[in-house]
């Protein structure tokens, strides 16, 4: 059995994450080092916009700020407390232009990038 882990907010290991439209900051705290199936963490984005197609199933929980997501002909304005389900293959336009957002994400499988011959951004 693997150990239960606590990740204090003040100690999250945020790193710069390069995305096609700029950069975000991300703390990938649930990963291959402590899980056999899931990935998860916190991402912070500000004044960046990028398109992405999910290669995994993912759940986002908006903690602070707001984000705009365009998908399937819809425009979704997300704010604190909102949850977004993203099935594998979802085509998205993430828009943080003029705004900042901090959100928790959980995804499956954690090794999506390796399975697609990629490196995580």
UniProtKB/TrEMBL annotation:
<dbReference type="Pfam" id="PF06249">
    <property type="entry name" value="EutQ"/>
</dbReference>
<dbReference type="InterPro" id="IPR014710">
    <property type="entry name" value="RmlC-like_jellyroll"/>
</dbReference>
<protein>
    <submittedName>
        <fullName>Ethanolamine utilization protein EutQ</fullName>
    </submittedName>
</protein>
<dbReference type="InterPro" id="IPR010424">
    <property type="entry name" value="EutQ"/>
</dbReference>
<dbReference type="InterPro" id="IPR011051">
    <property type="entry name" value="RmlC_Cupin_sf"/>
</dbReference>
